[in-house]
Amino acid sequence: MEKSIPLNLSKLPVELKLIIELAKCDFPEQAAGIDPNLFEEVNWDLFIKQTRHHRIYPYLYKRLQWCDTSEIPQYVLRTVEVDYKRNIFLMLQLSGEMQQLSCQFMNQGIPLLFLKGPVLASELYGDVSLRTSNDLDVLVQIEQLSLAEKLLTKLGYQKDDYIQTILNDWKWRHHHITYTHPVTKVKVEVHWRLNPGPAKEPGFQELWARKRMSSVTRQPIYMLGEKDLFLFLISHGARHGWSRLRWLLDVHQLLKKHTQWGRKMEFLGKYGYLHVGLQAFELSTELFDSTPPLEVKRSRHSHRLAQQAVYYLETMVNLHSEPLPKDIAVYHKRHLFSLMTGQQKICFILSFLYPYPQDAETLPLPKFLHFLYFPLRPFLWGWRKSRKLA
């Protein structure tokens, strides 16, 4: 990948700049070489808040020990250490639950792929304690979704999401349902797609054929193949504006561990994610000094997309905390649209013609007449819009 035009990072908070410098360190000597002025300018309470927002404190823990501890307040070191140790117990708990779920699903003949969690931490960092995860993300065939729900219910899990749907639009407008165990508090997201639609992506059978076995537990645990994992991580990170450094650090680790990037980029192009992959490379290279693949060429479009994503780092946006401020919501909608290829934009615009559950709320019809919502949708949308403006 040729040298890109530098991104404008001047508005990044100094606390985040220090976090990035620490994350780039692979050896104690590098940590010792960090500009001392960074430590003097930091608001340490905000530093802690940033490490938690970006979910990167386990990775920073050892790197903070490499620094001259006289430059860092003791309460900061203790706080990061407590967060790090708490994450160890959580990841061990998730590892145990992951093994149980794999065994239970296998016994019921339900193929199960783990998308993130301990398998991803082990794959990218070689240690489950170095990456955070609040839940387990699993992928099943959509035809076996009801069987998966029955099994999770039997194991004590309770469904958190009750999706409103009409004419089976949930199958492509949504991509997962969340279940939580009331006793263990473990959360499991059951996916039937990698990403919400309308979007082209590999089917479950393809993903299963390319699966790999993780060595995290003694029980066989299956995860995505290299190409599929790369597609999933960059599409997931881009959909959330790369608003957490953890996702870009994952890309940095991928660049260090994986090979055959020419084939991987061809694979991304097949599903319309080539420019998103280049965006991820631009950000990882600029922030973490990643070594970009030689066979990958940058584009002006991907550079613009990378610069757009810097906004999320500047403002410490939490896209999971709704409702979002209006300016952030508008910016995010526009950014997501800019991430789409021309074909994806057409599909996205056409998807608005497909009925929404709100149409049934506006004009309730018997289920056998729901097909009428197709011709009625523009009028129902216009009616709601006029009522809202009024």
Automatic annotation (TrEMBL):
InterPro entries to which the protein is assigned, alphabetical: NTP_transf_5
Q: Look up the domain of life of the source.
A: Bacteria
Q: Name one Pfam family in it.
A: NTP_transf_5
Q: What is this protein called?
A: Nucleotidyltransferase family protein
Give the source species.
Answer: Halobacillus campisalis
